[in-house]
Design brief:
The chain contains 11 helices and 10 strands. By secondary structure, the protein is an alpha/beta fold. The protein has 2 domains: 238 residues, Alpha/Beta hydrolase fold, catalytic domain (Rossmann fold, 3-Layer(aba) Sandwich), CATH 3.40.50.1820; 57 residues, no CATH class.
């Protein structure tokens, strides 16, 4: 019994997860904080695209992963604090703006910088972990880095402009074949900064190319992750699953070429949700929150952060 008590004293002192608020444009921005006593590092976890919440779920679309929640808990067990955020206009941050569609990547990045500054109360060294589109937001935020920003963790992040990635994702489904000329044409217009009258778009595509979403896409498609990556000279970890059907290993290759200082982890059998693919259940990691994270994910991040700290 005495041995158990002694060993327990070696574990990090982890506070319960709790919501925290900072000022947003019209109302507060909210995140979930896990504080760890004596932590040297904290990670700000930035969600991917669409209405994805701080835990990695999207009730309206059926996405149920808990990936970000599991990541924060795993980091805490290794002595690393975290903030996992709700994006402006959504969930706990719903009051921050009047229209959740009236957002830009630059505005998201500004919020992330504010969260990094807030996370400095948790630990002296703060990292941004951006998942998918959140990785693009991390790269933009790092162009004007807050004082306490120590580095970036790019999780399943595209190395190509999002318009190019969107076309590839549509092409992967043969049923979209008849629609591809129109999709490619609309994306080309949006990349050029021109919108389309939604009423002129094929009815099946109208939900994807509504007027509100077109405004957001014009901004989103204007960013080149490789160009942004070349502007970051600090530590960076690239994590890519080889079973990811949304962002490909080629994207990680592009980012790695632009970031010669980067470390890279390839998750064998890892999906876009940072979990191991389940044979015969192609959507399991998108819908089964009980599935654990890929077993190489958290140890890889912890080893990278510890190694980067030793090199500072």
């Amino acid at each position: 019994m005495r041995l158990i008590i002694l060993l327990a004293g070696l574990l990090p002192v982890m506070a319960a997860a709790e919501p925290v608020l900072i000022a947003g444009p019209l109302g507060p921005l909210e995140a979930e904080r896990i504080a760890v006593g004596g932590a040297a590092h904290a990670v700000v976890i930035v969600p991917g695209s669409g209405p994805t919440d701080r835990d990695g779920n999207s009730p309206g679309t059926g996405l149920a992963t808990d990936s970000y929640k599991l990541l924060a808990e795993g980091l805490a067990q290794s002595g690393i604090a975290s903030l996992r955020i709700d994006k402006r206009g959504l969930y706990g941050s719903a009051a921050a703006i009047a229209d959740p569609n009236a957002v830009t990547i630059g505005a998201y990045a500004g919020d992330v910088r504010d969260w990094v500054s807030h996370a400095a109360d948790l630990a002296p060294c703060v990292w941004i972990a951006g998942h998918s589109e959140g990785g693009l937001v991390a790269l933009v935020a790092a162009q004007d880095p807050p004082d306490r920003l120590c580095g970036l963790i790019l999780l399943a992040t595209s190395g190509r402009p999002t318009g190019r990635l969107l076309i590839e994702q549509f092409e992967a489904n043969p049923a979209n074949g008849p629609l591809m000329p129109e999709i490619s044409s609309i994306v080309a217009d949006l990349e050029a900064g021109k919108s389309r009258d939604p009423a002129s778009v094929t009815q099946a595509l109208q939900p994807l190319f509504s007027a509100e979403l077109q405004r957001y896409m014009i901004d989103l498609f204007s960013y080149d992750p490789v160009s942004l990556a070349k502007g970051w000279r600090g530590p960076v970890l690239i994590i890519q699953g080889d079973a990811d059907v949304q962002v490909r290993p080629h994207d990680a290759d592009l980012l790695e070429s632009a970031l010669p200082q980067a470390r890279r982890i390839d998750l064998a059998g890892g999906t876009h949700m940072l979990k191991a693919a389940v044979p015969g259940r192609p959507f399991a990691t998108y819908t089964d929150r009980a599935l654990p994270l890929h077993d190489a994910l958290v140890p890889g991040i912890v080893a990278f952060i510890d190694g980067a700290s030793a090199r500072r």
